[in-house]
Amino acid sequence: xxxxxxxxxxxxxxxxxxxxxxxxxxxxxxxxxxxxxxxxxxxxxxxxxxxxxxxxxxxxxxxxxxxxxxxxxxxxxxxxxxxxxxxxxxxxxxxxxxxxxxxxxxxxxxxxxxxxxxxxxxxxxxxxxxxxxxxx
Length: 136
Hints:
about 0% strand, elongated, 6 helices
């Protein structure tokens, strides 16, 4: 049987599975998992304010889609299960004040030129961590 998952997708799925994300399904054979198990799982996750429900939903959707495609299950229990909506969390933005910026600029003077440029650029234009990582 050929598995059509990209290496990145496979790695992402394995990482999620190894975290115990789907502990609720550990003792249930895949053929026995029904829609109400999944709805109940997401209800509990939402009630406990767990993170990444969208990712968890997509992983389960993909797993059951493949299981159905490979004829491991007769019916895909994810069909008709709506993706759980969670109100986005609002983080308060934090900025350096003039004193903190001065201290940071002094501290980076001993760094390699490449890193000084990255820090200064981040401070001047307000880059996010992911944008800084992309420069690196």
